[in-house]
Every structure is written in C-alpha cells, then in structure tokens.
Amino acid sequence: MKRFMMALIFAALWSLPSAYSRSAPQAGTDPQVSPTMQMALELAEENYHATNYEAALRVMEKGEPKLPGQWLLIGKVHFQMGNYAKAIEALEAAVKQA
Predict the structure, then answer these.
(1) What kind and span of H or E run contains 59?
(2) Given CA atoms 61, 67, 73, 74 in this order, what sign does their dihedral have?
C-alpha cells in the first residue's frame, strides 16, 4: 500500500512543472534564488535530463535544499535511481514547502 501511495504522489508531482523551468522566477527576482544557486539548479536539471542521476544528486545535495522545486528534483532523481524511501522523503519535503 505504501508503494502505491508513493507512486500516486510521485505521479502527481511529476506532472508539475519544474521550479526551474523558463516560467519560474529568475535569479535576482526571487530572493531565495541567488545567481549561483540558479546556475547549480540548471546544471542539476541538465544532468537529470541526460540521465546522469548521480551528478544531478551531487549538485543538489551540496547545499541544504530550501525550495520545493529542489526537493522535487531530488525526489525524482532518487526515484529514478531506485531509492524509493529517499524519494518519498524528498517529495514529502517538497509538498510541505509548496
């Protein structure tokens, strides 16, 4: 049952646009997103889309995630790597901060 609920939550979150897409606030307009953080997030997303999950995770875990989109990407990476417990943890953190 827990796996089913995790899959349901993940499917719902997966359909949300990434917090770092073109429609997201750009660095400088959102006080939580510094230019350095924006560049790191873009690099992490590029690695994620290139299926280089370990590199995406290394970039995302260098600092403490502060934004829901960061947690969402971390959850998606862990899910793709088969780390379902960590994926649930990260996705729950994304929901709490959203």
Answers:
(1) helix 53-60
(2) positive
